[in-house]
Specification:
By secondary structure, the chain is of the alpha/beta class. The protein has 57 helices and 27 strands. The strands form seven sheets. The protein has a seven-stranded mixed beta sheet, with helices on both faces. It has a six-stranded mixed beta sheet with strand order 3-4-1-8-9-10, with helices on both faces. Helix 5 links the parallel strand 8 and strand 9. The protein is elongated and about 160 Å long.
Length: 1500
Amino acid sequence: MAKNKEPRPTYAISVVGLSGTEKEKGNCGVGKSCLCNRYVRPSADCYYSEHTSVLSTIDFGGRVVNNDHFLYWGEVFHRGDDGLECRIQVIEQTEFIDDQTFLPHRSTNLQPYTKRAANTKLQSAEKLMYICTDQLGLEQDFDQKQMPDGKLNIDGFVLCIDVSKGCNRKFDDQMKFVHSLHSHISKAKKPIIIAATKCDECVEQYLREVQTFVTGKKNLMLVETSARASVNVELCFNALIQQMDKTRGKPKIISYLEAYKSQRQLVASVSDKFEKLIVQTVRDYHTSWKIVSNKLKSHPDYEEYINIEGTRKARNTFSKHIEQLRQEHIKRRREDYLTSLPKILNKLLNNLEEIETLSWTEAQSLMKSRPEFQYYFIELEQTPWYETDHLDKTDDRRVPFDILRTMEGERIYQNHVQHLISEKRRLEMKEKFKKTLERVHFISPGQPWEEVMCFVMEDEAYKYITESDRRDVYSRHQQEIVERAKEEFQEMLFEHAELFYDLDLNATPSCDKMSEIHAVLNEEPRYRALQKLATDRESLLLKHIGFVYHPTKETCLSGTACIDLKVEQVLANRLVQLDHGRSNIYYNSANIDKVNLCLVGREGLAQELANEIRAQSTDDEYTLDGKIYELDLLPVDVNSGMLLNHSWISTFKPHGFFCVFSSIESLNYIGDRVSRIRAEIAQSRRDRYSPPVPFILILANQRDSVCKNMPILRHQGQQLANKLQCTFVDIPSGTFPRKFNESQIKQALRAVLEGLKHNFDMMSPMPSIKDLSETDLRIVMCAMCGDPFSVDLILSPFLDSHSCSAGQPGQCNTLILDKIIGDSRRRIQVTVLSYHSSIGIRKDELVHGYILVYSAKRKSSMAMLRAFLAEVQDVIPVQLVAITDSQADFFENEAIKELMTEGEHIATEITAKFTALYSLSQYHRQTEVFTPFFNEVLEKKSNIESSFMFDNNRDGTGTGEDVFPQSPHSHSPAYQYYPDSEDDGEGPPPYSPIGDDVQLLPNPSERKYRIDLEGNEYPVHSTPVGDHERNHKVPPPVKPKPSVLPKPNVKKLDPNLLRTIEAGMRTSRWTRGPMIGHGDDLEASDNYAEPADTLLKSKGFSDDIYAVPEDAHSRSGRIRNSFGGLALHGDEENGFDSMSKSQGGRRPSKYKHRSKILFSKTKAYHRRVHSDVSDDESGPATQKKKKGRGNRGSEEDPLLSPVDPWKGGIDNPAITSDPEQDDKKMKKKKPPKTKEAKKTKPTKTTKPLYPPTRRNWESNYFGVPLQNLVTPDRPIPLFIEKCVEYIEGTGLTTEGLYRVCGNKTDQDNIQKQFDQDHSVDLIVMDVAVNAVAGALKAFFADLPDPLIPYSLHPELVEAAKIVDHYERLQVLKEIVRKFPPVNYEVFKYVITHLNRVSQQSKTTLMTADNLSICFWPTLMRPDFENKDTLSTTKLNQSVIETFIQQCQYFFCGGEITEPSSAEGTPPPHGHGLESLLALQLPPPLQPQQIQHPLPPEPLI
């Protein structure tokens, strides 16, 4: 071993073996260089299999060879098993051949190879390490390492013997050379290892000879190696190192086969890991090797594979994977194309007759001729398609046309043809099976397939088609018969019109009424036909009832066939809004050329309106009715401070204001600003007389909003317009893309010009012409929705006339006729409505005559006519019109003949006119058809108006000059809107008897009557209009529900007490002007009435909120307020006697009492609950039965409206009925009956009255005690949770939540569905949020006991009187802890929910105050007949308001919310009411029913 001063031992190993010329060693070496290469640089990339010994003289003399016949391979650091390292330096002894002479190069050592290879001391100055043959001559491009010290001492030898089949070399010659070589190197006394090389190509005989050679030598070891396969190379050198280091043990030699197996396993493992790595990393076949290698170069699996197998194999593996990805992509695209091909063929070649005989080539040509060919296919210039760039165009779904030329394409085409053939056959069989089902007449709607299947199993079509097809056909058949049955059922309901139209509008059918309806309908086969669909049948019935009692054109059961909608469309297209005579006004009177308009709006609406007007103008010149006006527009934001500065008014001098709104919030701003602008205008013109400036209120189209908000905006806009005495411009019917329509702008501009013209006429000494809105006759034409005739047919008698023009703006269903009637020209207003919209007109408005149209082809049309006509006053002339195709129908069709004959008989019985219109004839379409009827109406006009005034007087409306009062349904719905109220946001009632656009009577500025809550008129006195009247804060009189008071008690009221009450009213806080008799002087600042306040009212106000349904009897008298003017029954009689005498005629009745046909039909459906008209006619037993559900007084809250309906009902002694019954009632009113009623009164128990259920079905859930619905695990009833979660999840921002209620039918359906299935999903039911809110309140209303126990009511009232805010809250907190545990948990849950609702008050307009007004009667259910209740109403409400506001403090341990300015003092209460309570006055309304704004505090 060479002595070395380095800390690591260093060994020099010389690798020797057969060398020399090609003659001596053959054409390849024995593998010495490969063995050295694999040991020194084992990495696959650093291994070179080719090493040549034939060199040029220059290469031989280079620094690598350095004129020596040995190579320095470098050094290797070896770590033994004991952990010690050593350095191994490798020398290869060879013999270089001159490439010119092919003889050995001459060297300094001229010894033969066998002797030279045995040298143990080698020396070569500056000799470089050898790497590969390419290094020679290019040493600077490779790593340059010198042989250390220029000399080496050899410590051991590796003798290489090639055991492969020699390359032009004999093995025996090699062994002779080996024997000679071994004899020389053995003399050096150095360890020797025999390396059998190229064992991967081993010849067994050669290997055995080598083994024999090794066995015959002492201390020789044989290692079988393969440099190419990297097998046992390191073992060979390690064995020599162990022999050189005497401290090491004897090496363990492994056979080549075992080593090769281990190496292969290692390679396989490394290759598998690398392939998985490539698969995971490379997903796109477009990825390059460079990108992947850079990405994976630090990955251990990659490094290991590169080290063992090399980069070249790694790249090959990558390339294979890339190709595989590409082939998979091609396969997927091909499969996609082939999959889509049947669908394409089905679109392009779907005609079996066309392609059945075509070959595939002909079919391809046919497809090319289709216009859709380019959409489905693409023809590529190059083929195949997967060799083009179309392969990578994944977005292009077109199929390469060359795919069709493949075998798969032709196969798909053949399958397509066969599919069309089989599909044709299948459809034929399905149709045949459908006809088979149609022949089976016993199949009823809703019948399951399993019940029918056995009757058709032998049918040929049944056997051919599949079960799914059978069910599909049966499902379609069922759908058809169900739809047909439902249509017939609906038509049947219409045919029984008298059964449904005997109640008042906005009423609710009782349980008795529903039983009567079912009993009558059960006799009908069309009713029984839906026996298996009882739920659907009930739903249709409830929907029909809901529509009957709450009819609107939006909810019309005929949908788009509603007469109201069709008439609006026809009139809008056929009539100009203003006739030419009206446009002449501007020429003749005002003569205005330039108009200055100020446009007021919020959030850019004013500017948008200005832009729209300019877009319709030419150079700011606007053409209207044939005249050009120069418009000067000034758009101003409603929040601008300029509006409140009168300087700009003097500068701009506006002729009118366009105030535009699109939301409740913007409407509030407008209402607030208009009054201020008027004040500023008055201030700027105080020194001179000036007429008022017209204000026009314009509703903008809500393009992005929900269409259901439109009725709310429309109603509230109309109400504000009525209040401000200005014109309201509605959105015309139809769909418009922009916010403003041209007709709106023209209508608004006309209104401004009319206002200016009116002002001009007032200042002009010339007498003004007759107002165009004045009409001589008001005629209503009624037709039934869905009748089989065109609306043009019934309108043609008017529209074809040259004297026909449009009605007033906003009256979309009205036209005006100028005709000579009698001896002069008359203006006739004709309003064309559906029967359901006309019902409200029939009761509340002055109508001079009715034209009742019916279809002679439809029984239900005649039934609706009968139901409507039966309740018409018999003083009003009627014209009956039958519609059919031609006169021949009367003789050819028995059904038509019967209906026309019935109509003629009814006309004969009631002395009415009868005519027929024929759709195929033009003769009867002229106006002269109705001329005799118009003459009759004109003759009876005075009697009609006298009768109408008499009815209004009986209703307590007073008298007035104008006999054409405004319709309460067109301009004054049952609520008022006041923008000055902060909490105002209440929407209109969900139903209106007349459509939104229907306006029968004059504008508010033209009428001398005001409308109260029920649509009754009271006179507006002609007192001078002061500043306080300009705002028109006039709350209509609040009318409490009449109590059932014995009539003798009413007569004995002390007149002194009445005068005391009147005096008390005059000293109320309304002292700014005279109140009694001047409704305009009243003010209000709240949406809700206080129940106690409703006791104090002006004597001229009406109290008929709870009127008897007038459709069931003649127009009934109503109880009026007793303050200063109590009209007793006797007084009414006297009043009528004087009226009838002055009229010189009989008392008016109804047509049903003059017609046997009408009377018999009505009697057939007569309601049992209305059989007893008064208390005097019914015994105690009957009265006891009639304490059921009362009629709903308002749709605003169906649960609490009216208050305690079971306590009064409609049986009131002061209510009159039909003439035949009036005499009976007067005779039967005896004191004993009254005394008997008195005796029953003290027998009342002091326990709270339990409200009757509002349901008409049995329930095990609703109306049961609260403790039965909860468990310790679920302290809140499931129904409450579902309702609250639905409201908070979908409608927490709904405007008017808990105040505006949904349809009662929907509420009942919610509870019914929950009764049947507690897991019902309200979201799936798709019900309105307001309906869910109403159902939730209904749950509490049905509880046997209120949620807040009666025992705690006095304590709550006393606590509310505490002045100190914090002390009051502490006392309330102690009281609420006294609640029963079940009540406490539910109360906490509900109040917490209401608190969350109040937090959304900016959008819902439901503050804690409003919510408490809505909820306190539901949660507390007080007895309003108790006088204490009347004095504590406000206190009870304030308690609930406090609970909502301080929810966190009461239930969650939170801090007290800072009180507002109003919370510092308790609600005011006084003793002024006590003197009134002794009079046993009727109980007040609950707040939900009072939709008008009223003062928040009780009177003192």
